[in-house]
Fold:
Amino acid sequence: MSSVHAAPDFWEERYRAGETPWEYPGVPPALTRFLARNPARSGETVLVPGCGSGQELAAFVAAGYAVTAVDFSATAVKRARGRVPAGAAVALHCADFFTCALPLAGYSLIYERTFVCALDPARWPVVAKRITSLLRPGGRWVGLFLEGPKEDGPPFGWDRGEAEALLRLHFEHLDTQRVPPAESPALFAGREWWREWRRPVGP
Ligand SMILES: C[S@@+](CC[C@H](N)C(=O)[O-])C[C@H]1O[C@@H](n2cnc3c(N)ncnc32)[C@H](O)[C@@H]1O
Structure:
């Protein structure tokens, strides 16, 4: 993959320079609503790929999930580490999500926010397969997905029809909700959708 944004340095420079317009300053309200409806049952785990500075990690801990988070920017991971409550069950990896050793079928939940839209659209089929392989059967991929043009990113928006056609190869669709523009940073206002997909239990 030759795109500059496929390399850690692209993101590392932006975190160091404080140029992170994608960040939501806190826990996105749509996630707060989800966690109120879905506190962890015993043994439930969540994976946060491309976690950035980890704004949401403490919320998952508070909801009872054992948390694993991955990002390949060292500065982002350091910031995320600073947000984890002392003694919390959080494993933070500074690593490439596509190659780091994560347990197959290891997660009840995988959380998306501005990770997929950071990746070249040519990689989305690989993302969908990787996410499916990491979810337990019946596990869910949930979060905030960006819609809009997929050219000239990042961010690369999803065309809903194209995205759904791809995801339906691997997942059952559970829910799609429009995110009120006031709940997004200016860069994404009116373009974020809360979506929930489930890995089928059967083959
Ligand atoms: C737009 S930022 C979003 C960060 C965070 N999810 C948020 O909402 O603030 C994209 C993040 O994905 C990370 N990233 C991109 N490609 C990655 C990869 N292959 N493996 C791990 N992290 C990656 C970047 O370092 C960056 O922190």
In short: Residues 4-17+30-198 form a domain with the Rossmann fold fold (CATH 3.40.50.150). The chain has one domain: 4-17+30-198.
